[in-house]
Amino acid sequence: MAIISETSDDGSNGGDPNKKPQEEENLAPSLLPIPEELAESILLLVKRCHYPKLSLFSRTFRYVISSPELYQRRLQLGLTEPVLYALIRLPYVSYEFDPTWYILNRNVSRKISLRLSSLPPMSLMQPGSAVVTVGYDMYVIGGCDHPTSNVYIIDCRFHQCRSLPGMQRARSSPAAGVIDRKIYVIGGCEQRDDNWIEVFDIDTGVWSSVAGPYEYNSSMEEGGFLTYVVMQEKIYISDPECCLAYEPRQGTWESWGDSSALVRYWHPSSCVIEDLLYSINPFCELLVYDPNESFWKRVEGVFHLPRLNYHKCKLANVGGKLVVLANTCNRHGSKHVWCIEITVERREGGEVWGEVASRSVVLKSMDSLSIDLCRSVAF
């Protein structure tokens, strides 16, 4: 189940798609008290896009919808829905210009209509900060232009942000990955053998260090990385001169030179679905990399992708479906953001097939937008 959004984009913020607008406006609040247990049981079976309308029906519904316990129950019962978040900025306006958070919403009455909707400011976000997601939480770690030890967490259920205990060292453009409910943060600072790798235990909220010596020696003075992903319980890292893989359970490293197949098409926009790395090459072809085979191949069945600026696009895994956000290629006039949804399937014999489920403009603009980040959470 790959549901993009939590709200509709038809101006009603939810509702029954089979009802006419006049009928929805006449929805009267219930005068009878509803037990909280009954309200929770009902809401667990309803898609989140209908929550705003249900909150108008009853005070109990409104209370339960605003409670963390409802989302915790959804998580425990496996009833969560994936939601895509994007961080978009207007480049070249000023150095101090803050990017804006957007959420990808689906119009429940039209089934296929998508739109990026802006959110209230949640936090300052430097491009290059390491970002990982766990359930409905998004962890933002370190900085980019300025090294920092700051770590904060965004609760995407209620779009609230809070600080976490800081790391021992300030970091800029580190790599990060979640394995066994532990966040491993690697590099982003001068390499030392005592705390170049730090680990945050999500359950205890405590940081610890992974002592060296490390098998990898950073070639960069400040130790920053280009990008990172998690495949097969390993943290894959792109260094300007090579590719690395760190296996935290055993503390082992693998490395590939700049002439390896992995380096060729792996860039910061790539994403992982079921331990396969997906990317788009300059010829607008969707490619996949299997770490067991160690080479890229074309995803079969995906043809005629729109001519977009894939060099600066962003890919995300949204409930097992590949979602691509990219700008138009126009040098003059509008710079709209497109969204392409692609279902992918690994078949017998190792072939990977895909099918474009939808493609549409999700954000219209007369300015050149920069998509800094694209991540999905589940709640």
UniProtKB/TrEMBL annotation:
InterPro entries: F-box/kelch-repeat_ARATH, F-box_dom, Kelch-typ_b-propeller, Kelch_1, Kelch_FKB95. CDD domains: F-box_AtAFR-like (cd22152). It holds the Pfam family F-box. Residues 28-74 form the F-box domain. Signal peptide: none annotated. It comes from the Eukaryota. Gene3D superfamilies: Kelch-type beta propeller (2.120.10.80). Residues 1-24 are annotated as: Disordered. PANTHER family: F-BOX DOMAIN-CONTAINING PROTEIN (PTHR24414:SF65), F-BOX/KELCH-REPEAT PROTEIN SKIP4 (PTHR24414). This is F-box domain-containing protein.
